[in-house]
Amino acid sequence: MNASQNPAKPTVPPGTKPNPLGSRLPPRKALGLFALLFLVNYLLMRFLFPGEQPVTVPYTEFRQQVAAGNVTALYSRGTTIEGRFKQPVTWPTPEEVKQAGQPPRPTTLDRRLLPPPRTSAYFNTELPAFFDRGLEDFLIRHGVEISAVPIQQGGLWTTLLYFGPALLIIGFYVWMYRRAAQGGGVGGMGGMFGIGRSKAKRYDAGDPANRITFNDVAGIDEAEAELVEIVDFLKAPDKYTRLGGTAPKGVLLIGSPGTGKTLLAKAVAGEAGVPFFSMSAAEFVEMIVGVGAARVRDLFKQARESAPAIIFIDEIDAIGRARGGIAFGGGHSEQEQTLQQILTEMDGFSGREGIIVLAATNTPDVLDRALLRPGRFDRRVVVNLPDKAGREAILRVHVRKVPLAGDVRLEELAQATPGFSGADLQNLVNEAALLAARRNEAAVAHKDFLDALEKIVLGPERPLLLSPQDRERIAYHEGGHAILGLVVPGADPVHRVSIVPRGQALGVTYQRPQTDRYNYPEAYLRARIIGMLGGRAAEEVVYGTRTTGAENDIEQATQLARSMVTRWGMSDAVGMVQLAPRENRFLGTAAGVGGDKPFSEQTAALVDAEVQRIIQGCHEEAQRRLREHRPALDALVRALLNQETLSEEEILRVTGLPPAPQLEGAPLRQGT
């Protein structure tokens, strides 16, 4: 246990009485404050909850209540009797009788002459001068308890009501300041409640259950190679410091979600054999100002005590955004204070201490420039999505503990999952294993992986009852996509076609490229648009009418055509001018901030005309090719209506068409 977790107790000078509440408040002042709190609590409760006041009844009424068995206990002091009724009795007080100008009467007195009576379970009365000596026997016969002490009203509940709130406040006060004394020097409200402490999770490399090495990381070899030097420095720092050099203070991991940034950071710690402190950036910030900075200080303090060590801050953009924006809490927001503390801490240690800060983000463009300057995050490592070979390696890592059938082809699965991250591939293996278990299989087969892939991409099957006419129209729609994927040069090969409703789609045609590609020719993009419009074109060729089933196809085609005009300069009329913000390559969203169009209305009209020209030309080409291959389309539709789902080999056999001449590209998912 480190010093921040078990702070040393402060020494007390000889002859000084220790203060259990800490050194923030002297004992005499604390006792005076407590006494004042008790007094205020008692007076306030007496004012707000005065309790049940006894009523004064005549002696004759008292005897009648005893005879009726309604008196449970009494206490006598001289000629005064105080007692308690079983059932509350309504009777005016002496003041009310005096105000009415009437003498006390028994229960039959005329209530109309008196003020509103009071009801109470407690009473008092006065013994007359001719005191009846047989009263004691009379009381005992009727089961009345004669007490030697005054009768308490309310008992324990009254005591808790009068003094309970004060006791709770004092107890909270004592607990709060004891927590402050144990807070490791974190002051303010954060120290009192312990929320100024770091919530970082510590992973020790010595624990085999938690140790992760580079053998557990696959598919990101380039990023792994960048971090080998960091591991070497943590293992042998003297090798680099003997010539005056210092290790990088910080390494920023940049990549799409699920690419393995956190796993890579743990692998660095596991390879180096040093403690690993992991914390999300969102855990620094609380509603109390100053807590984030306190947690940053405590985190770096723990790391220094365990050096050499690695600090990993996930999603650092939550606190590392560029300063200068408008904050609801004022100019110096909690996020900015936390960021400034991180900047200070990273300046406060040298590379010789053996502490390296790793951070991960999906949006490097929004980070503060001071965070990215040399001396803080010296290196930036981009963790890209895995390529085909990387996906196959990742699949092999995740199927280590999964029994596989003999027909499983991981290379084919890797080829069928372009754009999948490591987390997506792990989910694919898990879904396939669950599906095989649901089918009572002894091992996971290749079909289980394909069905799991369809479920992940398109969603689970929906048990819709479609009419024969709707099923036929959906089959022609998906058949149009599939036929164009076979006859249009440059189109991606058709991997699977189905008319089983899944998710929001009534059918789907899944196309995949032969290899990964990072540069797209204009011919390939036009081939994709032609394939997207194949469903609408097939409906028009066969039925001569249109349906709403092409909504998603039209949306994708429009976005692709607009990007060709506004981003990639593929329109001679518009030219090579950027008219749209680039996308965040790690999140797939626009990096620019929305606002007014950075071009004139004439340019906007020209862009719209060019987008319409591209889409219209691709639509006409789709109709022409479907008319030419109408027999193959009809044969494919008959097979779909019979089997509902066809694989690539079955599609080629049914249509009799060879695969289209290939222009390697990116995956295409189309659905109605």
CATH architecture field of the largest domain: Up-down Bundle
CATH class of the largest domain reads Mainly Alpha
What is the CATH fold-level name of the largest domain?
Answer: Methane Monooxygenase Hydroxylase, Chain G, domain 1
SS summary, helix count: 23
* Gyration radius, in Å: 41 Å
Main β-sheet: number of strands, strand sense, barrel status?
Answer: 6 strands, mixed
Strand content: 5-15%
How are the strands of the largest sheet arranged? 6-8-9-10-7-11
How far the N terminus sits from the C terminus, by CA atoms, comes to 60 Å
What features would you describe in this structure?
The protein is α/β, with parallel strands linked by helices. The chain has four domains: 55-152, Signal recognition particle alu RNA binding heterodimer, srp9/1 (2-Layer Sandwich), CATH 3.30.720.210; 193-383, P-loop containing nucleotide triphosphate hydrolases (Rossmann fold, 3-Layer(aba) Sandwich); 391-458, Helicase, Ruva Protein, domain 3; 468-671, Methane Monooxygenase Hydroxylase, Chain G, domain 1, CATH 1.20.58. Helices cover 44% and strands 12% of the residues. The chain has 23 helices and 15 strands. Strands 6-8-9-10-7-11 form a six-stranded mixed beta sheet, with helices on both faces. Strand 8, helix 10 (291-305) and strand 9 (309-314) form a beta-alpha-beta unit. Helix 1 (27-48) packs antiparallel against helix 5, helix 17 packs across helix 19 and helix 17 crosses helix 22. The two termini are 60 Å apart. Mean pLDDT is 76; it is low at 1-25, 105-115, 180-193, 327-331 and 664-672. In the C-terminal section; belongs to the peptidase M41 family. InterPro entries: AAA+_ATPase, AAA_lid_3, ATPase_AAA_core, ATPase_AAA_CS, FtsH, P-loop_NTPase, Pept_M41_FtsH_extracell, Peptidase_M41. GO terms for molecular function: ATP binding; ATP hydrolysis activity; ATP-dependent peptidase activity; metalloendopeptidase activity; zinc ion binding. ATP binds at residues 255-262. It is a multi-pass membrane protein.
